[in-house]
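Why should sequence recovery work at all? Because a backbone constrains its sequence more than one might expect. Tight turns favour small or flexible residues, buried strands favour hydrophobic ones, and helices have their own preferences. The token representation captures these environments compactly. In the example below, the structure is given first.
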């Protein structure tokens, strides 16, 4: 799970930064583990970034 136009460190830093903005919404009483919650947040964020990258690539190539 990585956007093809970014270096690993840039992707890692961006994902951790996004996770820090969402981790305060974790509710330990919900029955889920914090590790699972954080993994899901990171996975969904990376999938969103990949889909945006693919969308931008398609728009760019269709304009050519």
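From this structural description, the recovered sequence reads:
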């Amino acid at each position: 799970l990585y956007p093809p136009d970014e270096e690993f460190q840039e992707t890692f830093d961006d994902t951790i930064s996004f996770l820090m903005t969402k981790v305060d919404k974790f509710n330990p009483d919900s029955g889920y583990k914090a590790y699972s919650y954080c993994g899901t947040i990171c996975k969904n964020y990376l999938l969103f970034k990949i889909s945006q990258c693919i969308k931008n690539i398609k728009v760019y190539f269709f304009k050519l």
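A few observations help interpret the result. The CA atoms of residues 8 and 17 lie 14 Å apart.
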